[in-house]
Design brief:
Elements (H helix, E strand, L loop, with lengths): L1 H30 L9 H22 L7 H24 L7 H29 L1
Helix pairs in contact: 1-2, 1-4, 2-3, 2-4, 3-4
Amino acid sequence: MSRINSIVQFIILLILSLGIAFFLHITILKGKGLPPYENLIVLSYMVNSILAAAIFIALYTLRNKLKNQIGFLFIGGSLLKFIFFFILFYPTYKADGEMSGLEFASFFIPYTISLIIETIFTTKMLRKLD
């Protein structure tokens, strides 16, 4: 029962946090007269949320079996996110020869929020293992 609760809590917080961040991100872009849905922003929020959820669920599922390797698996999850970045986003962002601040923010705002939430929940999970 507690496994489901931790996973559900993680997913709820992740969706709420990224949803609020997405709304604020779009609102700020519109307020500055910038196109709100360019730079693969929707895909970025979706990919980051799906990867964060999958990584945390995997870590939580393996927590007892691979207790001493959770840190390496967590780092591997971050590596996986960067692989997705370089496959899905980087070619589009660098198509004009440079990555703009808007392009950078479109990926790294949801990445950072997801990473913070993953870190907090993974830390809580590891504390319960000791």
